[in-house]
Amino acid sequence: MSPNPTAPREVHNRQGVVSSRYVAALSDTTPSTEVTLLALHTAISIGAQVGRFTARHWGLLDLEDTAEQVGTHLIARAVETTGNPDPNFRYTDLDLATVRAVGIRVHRRAAALIIDVWDSDPTTPLPAPGGSLDHHLAAVHALARRWRWYPAPCGGKVIWAELTPPDHHQPGQAPYRLAGGLPIIELRHEQAETCACHGA
Asked: How far, in Å, CA of 167 to CA of 187, rounded?
């Protein structure tokens, strides 16, 4: 049997061991939590709790609710894109040979909490210039200080969001503007802008 193409590989570098899904290499001393889930409806609530309880464990109490909401929206989008979001799905119908996986990684950089979510679909999550974001990304845009996406090294894509305490919060940074209450894509249409921890 050939290996599951959605399973993460470990890549060794000078900064330690990092999943091949994510561009950002984390040192052994960087607080982080990484979970791989089947792309099913149950992953959504698990991803939400990974965000919430990781923020709580690290003492980032101001970010608990935001981390839960962002985790919910990013995992829900990943499941809806690549998996089976049906809440009434029967596990007896599960085909382990074809079921996709999604991944969530939460790590800390100073006072910021960064949530990375991987799925196996390489398609850009951004609409055409002038189009509206889907409701999941619109919510992330409103909640996060900033967010972007990039093609994952192992295939698929990663959408990441940086969360900061309220006194540092500047939600929805450029290149997005709000029109009619919904984020609209400007003509400047980046594919894979990264934050400092993602190699910028």
From this structure: 30
Closest-CA residue to 160 (of 144, 172, 139, 171): 144
pTM exceeds 0.85, yes or no: no
Contact criterion met (CB below 8 Å) for 119 and 149:
no
Residue entry with tokens 């923020």: 55
Q: Cα 169 vs. chain centroid, distance in angstroms?
A: 19
Q: Are 105 and 34 in contact (CB under 8 A)?
A: yes
C-alpha closest to that of 71 among 37, 27, 24, 100: 37
Alpha-carbon gap, residue 98 to 96, rounded angstroms: 6
Beta bridge partners of 194: none
**pLDDT tens track for 50-86:** 999 999 999 999 999 999 999 999 999 999 999 998 8
CB contact at 8 A, 172 and 166:
no
Half-sphere exposure of 181 (CA within 13 A, CB side): 1
The runs of H, that is alpha helices, within the chain are 42-57, 64-82, 135-143
Question: Each residue of 161-190: pLDDT tens digit?
Answer: 999 988 755 544 444 444 344 444 332 333
CA distance 137 to 143: 10
pLDDT band at 21 (very low <50, low <70, confident <90, very high): confident
pLDDT in tens, 45-56: 999 999 999 999
63: Cα separation from own chain's centroid:
16
